[in-house]
Design goal:
The chain is α/β, with parallel strands linked by helices. The chain has six helices and twelve strands.
């Protein structure tokens, strides 16, 4: 078991679920393999790779996408009480490179941050998972042009995008309360 995860408040059942998909280093830091690349996390730093291969854990029909593996662990720490059987879960961390994400079956939930990058990733990835490509452009008037529709920074969410374009991807998002990421939330509460 990783001492860092214990300090973050990750319960034992969540640590055991993720244990096959990470390596604890001698210094206590944790490596998550993304093919030939690694996500590396410790109390003092967090490096998310720009990797072609995503990190995956589990193989259940409830699929959760995030930027990082530690974000997936922190999400499950906050919501483990909602899942009676952790074997029904699958987590996919895409790092800084989402281009090679394949469409997948199952109930999909996106765990990206509350900031603009997280909300834009919700839109871009949800369309990619449904085999649809779209361009997002930042305009001079501080708006985003998405498929010839304009959104301000405060308006841009997957829900508002889908309503504006009349789409229903069936993909949902979960955001932490009062923090940008679940990792940030646990660090603030427990470290």
């Amino acid at each position: 078991m990783a001492a860092f995860l214990k300090k973050l408040g990750v319960p034992r059942n969540v640590q055991l679920f993720f244990e096959p998909w990470y390596e604890v280093q001698a210094d206590g830091s944790i490596l998550f393999p993304f093919g030939d690349e690694f996500e590396h996390v410790s109390p003092g730093f967090h490096r998310v790779p720009t990797a072609v291969n995503p990190w995956t854990a589990g193989s259940g029909p409830l699929v959760f996408f995030s930027f990082s593996a530690i974000e997936a662990i922190c999400f499950l720490t906050c919501y483990a009480h909602s899942f009676a059987d952790l074997n029904l879960l699958q987590f996919i961390a895409i790092g800084n490179h989402w281009e090679n994400v394949q469409s997948c079956t199952g109930k999909i939930t996106l765990l990206f941050g509350q900031d603009v990058l997280g909300r834009l990733t919700d839109i871009k990835l949800s369309m990619a998972l449904r085999n649809k490509r779209l361009a997002i452009r930042y305009c001079a008037d501080a708006t985003f042009d998405i498929d010839r529709h304009r959104f301000t920074e405060s308006e841009i969410t997957l829900s508002s995008f889908e309503k504006t374009l009349g789409l229903r991807s069936g993909i949902r998002t979960v955001k932490p309360r009062n923090f940008n990421t679940f990792f940030e939330q646990l660090k603030h509460q427990n470290l």
